[in-house]
Amino acid sequence: MPDDAWHIYRGTGEPNDRIGTLPPPPPWRGFDPDPDPGDEPPFVPETRDKEHRAGLRYRPDPQTVELVNAALYLRRPLLVTGAPGTGKSTLATAIAHELNLGRALRWNITSRATLRDGLYQYDPLARLYAASRRDDDPAADPDEDLGRYLRLGPLGTALLPRRRPRVLLIDEVDKADLDLPNDLLTIFEDGEFEIAELLRRPEQHAHTLVSTIDSPQRVGVRDGRVRCSRFPIVVMTSNDEREFPPAFLRRCVQVRIETPDERKLQQIVEAHLPDMAPDSAAVIRQFLAGQKAGGLATDQLLNAIYLVHAARLDRDKTREALAAVVMTPLVRR
Questions:
Q1: Would the pLDDT of 243 be above 70?
Q2: What does the domain layout of the chain look like in residue ranges?
Q3: Do residues 248 and 217 touch, judged by C-beta distance below 8 A?
Q4: pTM
Q5: Which of 18, 41, 67, 262 has fewest C-beta within 10 Å?
């Protein structure tokens, strides 16, 4: 048996249904049983857009593939670190694409982001406006269809019970407030959260239809609680701008994406610009020299190669000067 026979995710970019062969979780990572087909949230297919193309062409290194599979088996989130432009965010899209898990959910973190932002949003103003229009009806119930004013965020949507896990990208988690990583710990351990607005009158909101972040079709929430049946595939990215608490780190599978070398860069160019790859060696060497001087991102290399070929320049010096226009160092030294 080959050493990689246990791999569910292989990093080839070829869609497959191997997620169905994933063995049961460890006893301490099991959640609720799979939902009945009628209760399962709608499947949101992957779109044939920029993210699809990125997932199709992404080629992770063997160590990254091993660690992704470790996270799949252990039902643990991935914490992906590395320099800007090394493909950290694209890893989530690549996993969703290859394992046929639909469109990856995305939560872009800012310094003002809170756990509540990722779980759900409640619109009290819309509810107040609707209530004001019912003032002429004394029999109207202000709590009727409260779910119309609730929408699950990316994390909340990912935790809905389903037979196949969703992929969730939490991008640049190191930009968050100091409390967010610790707040995420409880969610990652329990795989559930409560919607406070529904718990105020539990007898009336035993089953409530709410919106999700990526589908117009509403889904049912029972007893004011969302609890997963399959732990989502969570990819958190970090640019190494801060340190995380040990309690947070030990609950993650940590992945370090290194700056690609010349061989890896050639593979990236072949995946994205196959017709231009045979004549890209000089630009790749120029890119590597620029990385040492002040740091460059991989998409700058792809832009430079495309620009040089589209301009149809013949002289090496002219090609080098044009490539330098879009390969400006990201870090001033």
A1: yes
A2: 18-257, 262-326
A3: no
A4: 0.87
A5: 262
